[in-house]
Specification:
Layout (H helix, E strand, L loop, with lengths): L1 H22 L5 H14 L3 H8 L7 H5 L1 H13 L6 H26 L4 H29 L3 H27 L9 H6 L5 E5 L9 E5 L2 E8 L2 E6 L13 E5 L2 E5 L6 E3 L5 E3 L8 E7 L2 E5 L2
Antiparallel strand pairs: 1-10, 2-3, 3-4, 4-9, 5-6, 6-7, 7-8, 9-10
Helix pairs in contact: 3-6, 5-6, 5-8, 6-7, 7-8
Bound molecules: FE2/S2 (inorganic) cluster.
FE2/S2 (inorganic) cluster binds next to loops.
Length: 297
């Protein structure tokens, strides 16, 4: 155990340096841009893109879907060392391989709307996962032809590659903030108490206005005498919703982020179109002596 801990401790800074180099590897930009255009061309339907982003779920779909192949492949690796479990291991490899396809589709759809640095890491993440998927596909084929020893070896190799891909995916989310709600830090800066947004009579019906509550910009919208105050920085990548267009979708006035087109209902912040998959955070409002005030929920 001490030996394993030492190996892991030695690997961690090396992985960190490797990923830091990936983030700065401009040589990947050409291929990333061509791949991005390919993805955009292949997923033209906004409905399909929203489905894959997880707009309907209110949560990014890709990290939810990847649990299935990783879980199935890891379980197959355990069964592969136990006697009499060949059929069960083969079934799990088949489930993991089949479920990796929709997970990959959701992933490339998210990837196409990432920033340049994120796309570099994402490209290697996708390459590792494609290699893992190929190894598991060949492993499955070998197992089905009765060649279980080679099938097991390919699967272990596939698991090692998939784990590298998963590490990069974790780095993308937790270190680089891909597909996490980027507007949340603005919420932490707000004090928990009611704060003055402005005088009621300085806002016009149907015209979004930007105000600041301390360091946090908020978007104020007045419709039929009812105010909405939401964080102004887009949940996707912090784009300025105050510069966004207002459109009507299904009878609801919505604001479209000028950076990548995420669209939110102005009445309640509900996300209508991705790439953001989470709602825009709204604040409680009240009117006191002709002043509009807001506070975190
Ligand atoms: S920042 Fe990307 S859609 Fe708003």
């Amino acid at each position: 155990m001490i030996g394993l801990a030492a190996v892991v401790a030695g690997m961690t800074p090396r992985m960190g340096r490797f990923v830091a180099r990936l983030e700065r590897l401009t040589a990947l930009d050409g291929i990333a841009e061509r791949a991005r255009k390919l993805v955009r061309g292949a997923i033209r339907s906004r409905r399909v893109a929203d489905l894959l982003h997880g707009v309907w779920l209110g949560h990014p779909l890709h990290p939810a879907l990847v649990q299935v192949p990783l879980g199935a492949w890891t379980s197959a690796a355990v069964l592969d060392v136990l006697p009499g479990q060949r059929a069960a291991a083969t079934t799990l490899v088949a489930i993991g391989t089949a479920s990796a396809v929709p997970a990959a589709l959701a992933g490339v759809n998210d990837w196409a709307a990432l920033s340049r640095e994120q796309r570099r890491v994402g490209l290697v993440h996708a390459a590792a996962n494609t290699m893992a998927l190929t190894l598991y596909g060949v492993s499955l084929s070998a197992r089905m032809r009765g060649r279980h020893t080679i099938g097991r070896r390919l699967a272990y190799l596939g698991l090692a590659v998939a784990s590298t891909g998963a590490y990069l995916g974790g780095h993308l989310s937790y270190a680089l903030g891909a597909q996490v709600n980027q507007s949340v830090p603005g919420l932490w800066l707000l004090r928990g108490t009611w704060q003055r947004v402005g005088n009621v009579d300085e806002f016009n019906e149907g015209e979004p206005a930007v105000r600041k509550l301390g360091e946090t910009p908020v978007l104020v919208y007045l419709e039929a005498g009812r105010f909405t105050v939401m964080l102004e920085r887009c949940a996707h990548h912090n784009g300025p919703l105050g510069d966004g267009k207002v459109v009507e979708i299904d009878g609801w006035p919505c604001v479209v982020c000028p950076w990548h087109g995420s669209t939110y209902r102005l009445a309640d912040g509900v996300v209508v179109h991705g790439p953001a998959a989470t709602d825009q955070i709204t604040l409680r409002t009240r009117i006191v002596d002709g002043r509009l005030e807001a506070a975190p929920v």
